[in-house]
Every structure is written in C-alpha cells, then in structure tokens.
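job 3f2a | input accepted
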Amino acid sequence: MVLSTKFGGMVLLLSAMAFSAPASASPTAKDVLAKLESSSDEDMWKLYVNGIVDGLQWANAAAANRGDQPLFCQPGKLSLSFEQPIEILKNYVAEHPRNADAPVGLALLYAMKYTFPCTAEKRLEKPNP
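job 3f2a | predicted structure (129 res):
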C-alpha cells in the first residue's frame, strides 16, 4: 500500500511538472529569427511561425464571429504566403527592437496588429482565417 501511494504521488508530481511549463519555454522572436538565418531546420521554423500566425488568424475569426473587436484587421481578401509572416516578424522586430526578447507568439501578435491595424472601416470586414 505504501509503495502504491508513493508511486501515485510521483506520477502526480511528474504530471504536474510536465503540464506546467514556464512562459519562458517559448522561444523569443530574436531566437526564432536567428534560427531562420542559421539553422539547417529553417523549414521547421517557418512552419512554426506560420502555425502561430494561423492560430492568431483563427482567434481573430472567432472574435469577429462573437462580435468582439478583432485582434488585427488583415484585409479579408488577403491570403498570406508562406514567407510573408516571417517578413512581417522581421520588419516588426527591426522597427521595435525592444520586443525582440518577447515570446515569438506575442511578438507575432504585435506584428500582425502593427501590420494590419484596425480602423473603423476595417472592423466591418470579415477576417480571413
């Protein structure tokens, strides 16, 4: 009985550790941009960035469908190419170097907001998920 209680406690502890990763576990914008410049895994990092942007676009569409203010106002007919999110991030970090150390997901949100700001007219357009 004592062994099963200890084992159960250890499983619980390891599970809690596995599902409570700190926010710093996410790579920074600077880290990702460096990997894109020098890594043999460039395509993996491009997929990573595009996956984050895809998630941001879905979150934006969900906000619009609820009637909430969009996170950013990408023109409804504009579909981003595979390379454009990387360029958006590069340009944003170049113009806002203080955000280079932000987690890449947050930096990408700021970059999308900066690149596709919302105005009264744009808020009426449907986002492109």
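job 3f2a | Residues 87 and 93 are 10 Å apart (CA to CA).
job 3f2a | closed
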